[in-house]
Amino acid sequence: MEYRRLGTSGLKLSALSFGTWVTFGRQVDATCARALVSCAIDHGVNYFDSSETYSAGMAETLLGSALKQLEIPRDAFCVSSKVFFGACSDPKPTQRGLSRKHVTEACHQALKRLQVDYLDCYFCHRPDPETPIAETVWAMDTLIRQGKVLYWGTSEWPAAAIREAYAVASREHLHAPTMEQPQYNLLHRQRVEAEYAPLYDSFGMGLTTWSPLASGVLTGKYARGIPEGSRLSLTSYKWLQERVDMTRVPKLLPIAADLGLSPAQFAIAWCLKNPHVSTVMLGATKRDQLEENFKALDMLDKIDDAVLKQVNVALT
Ligand code: NDP
């Protein structure tokens, strides 16, 4: 495993990390969750991601139990949660958003579900137009000073909102955001590569990126329909089928094959080649998937400048 600094902070995260969206509490039960976390730990993963909203809090519960049962020392792993959407299907006005109240309550609930005394990373899962950014920055700063959170960040915030958060923190001498959590994969690049480009040097912003396989689409497994039990077969995730552009995937498959990589390994290695990426967060429902995906780390040298150019041409 390779370990990368989270932006310019001193926190070193495994270049490949493991998340719990859709899977934990929905496709994956407690036994399977423990096996997947154990597999990740065996491969050197030290960072695990969740959110209040994943399976209405159940993902955090399963992740916390797995880490506890595996007796991983608290100083050897990092865990993150995210706040915004709420942890129930019909949240009351105070049970969602980025108000001081909900940011504080959601943190306390995440600590309980994850069975930890502090969150290493805590993200504002989306921007909240109904809460002043200054209120959220103050709330995050308070949690950090209370020792309940170590680093805070944003997820899918426009660059202008991130700039405003930094400006508030700088003006008020508060802890500034350390990282962003954006989608980043071969089919979804604009925000990380263009919109955020000035923020890396200006603020030392790190990235914990999500959906390296575009929910599995970049494995090529959807080329001949939707396999039973796969993410896109889940009725509650039908909306994903419309969001992900599958038409460009066939153009990428021959490039991966020429390099002797599986499509999944190629897609993950491609994400890792971006030096602004602190960690690529993987998702998996099966141990075999993780075993295959971790091999991407050994293949980075195969993705040279010529291959990167070939990808750009194929995708235009
Ligand atoms: P991916 O794009 O890598 O999708 C993971 C899914 O793809 C797996 O659950 C599995 O689904 C399938 N898959 C993975 N590997 C293989 C393989 N080798 N062969 C075939 N199928 C494979 O990542 P996620 O979308 O899960 O995102 C990773 C993490 O990022 C999440 O768990 C979450 O923690 C975070 N995230 C954050 C978001 C945010 O807004 N901040 C949004 C989304 C995710 P299946 O077996 O069901 O087909």
Overview of the structural elements:
This protein has one domain (3-217, 278-286): NADP-dependent oxidoreductase domain (TIM Barrel, Alpha-Beta Barrel), CATH 3.20.20.100. The radius of gyration is 19 Å and the shape is globular. Helix 2 packs parallel to helix 3 (100-114) and helix 4 (133-145) crosses helix 5. It has twelve helices and ten strands. Strands 3-4-5-6-7-8-9-10 form an eight-stranded parallel β-barrel, surrounded by four helices. The chain has a two-stranded antiparallel ribbon with strand order 1-2. The mean pLDDT is 97. Helices cover 40% and strands 14% of the residues. With 316 residues, it is an alpha/beta fold.
Short description:
The chain has 316 residues and is an alpha/beta fold. It is built from twelve helices and ten strands.
